[in-house]
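Design request, tokens follow.
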């Protein structure tokens, strides 16, 4: 099974998840902010105890992300 690109970061003990249309639909109330200086904004997920919500949120987010581009092999 091919893996998708990164969808989340943990910075300074905070969970950041990439912004997608699915995320906006599921949790329009979430704050958005960059996880570190110079980064694009992500959703800041402060309530991490709701396992059902997080599972659905991550699943729907990942469905919208493109597959990573395959890396070309280096010539020897």
């Amino acid at each position: 099974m091919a893996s998708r690109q990164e969808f989340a970061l943990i910075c300074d003990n905070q969970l950041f998840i990439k912004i997608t249309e699915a995320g906006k639909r599921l949790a329009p109330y979430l704050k958005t902010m960059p996880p570190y200086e110079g980064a694009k904004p992500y959703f800041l997920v402060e309530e991490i105890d709701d396992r059902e919500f997080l599972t659905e949120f991550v699943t729907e987010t990942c469905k919208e992300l493109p597959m990573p581009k395959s890396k070309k092999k280096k010539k020897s």
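Comment from the thread starter after seeing the answer: thanks! The chain has a mean pLDDT of 88.
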